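Predict structure. Chain length: 274.
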Amino acid sequence: MMGEGDRVVVVTGIGGMGLAVARRLGPGSRLLLADVNGTTLGAAAEVLRAEGQQVVEQETDVSDADSVAALASAALEMGRVDVLVHTAGLSPVQAPIDAILRVDLLGTALVLDAFASAIAPGGAGVVVASMAGTLWPQDLELERRLATTPTAALLDLPELAEGAIDNPGAAYGLAKKANQVRVRAASVRWGRRRARVNSISPGVISTPMGAAELDGPSGAFMRSMVAGSGTARLGTPDDIAAVAEFLVGPQSSFITGTDLLVDGGVVASLLFGG
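Prediction complete.
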């Protein structure tokens, strides 16, 4: 019979949000950390081990199906996979259009597929999307195809073809909208295992990725959005970790297939702030 120590928590993407999530959800569990950057991964693992956590790391390219499958297999070998939090992704200042589509869009679909059969009954998953997806112009037909197209054919959609997307920012918004609707569709399959999956759409968060965006071409606009929001502040990694903890915990046992906007009121201000 498995005890608490056999509970496995998988966290992909060990940047600011991923590390905060691992720190909050890891105690009493076995942590499996995944990141494409071995140096970042090793440093995060050492920090968490020094804090007393049980940590295994695995270099993982979420845009590669075999790499994601290997991560799911490693998680199953460790014990009961109760929690998956997928934070891995690229921002518009970090990567070109094709990389954003492969990592942010395809990568999320691959992770959802692989862990749909690895997550334990009663387990829960969280995917980090973005308020950029919430702000993406509504197109119900495109959303349906983003949600339901088989993963192997996802990047073949005409809206994702070379030249169809103008810039990395647009690619990012479309990818994050895809994350939101893909999670909603995936919740049906996850539910057959009595497991839940939801997404979080953060606003502007004070992480290295967020700082890079604030220093980028859209930085001034982003700062004005934050200033006009109901909270008038940047979010923190702990803000996101707290929401992830709620969504994988017993208090949210009736919540699945939904997206939780955690933006400090930015979207509300943009829509109704005058």
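Summary: The chain has a mean pLDDT of 93.
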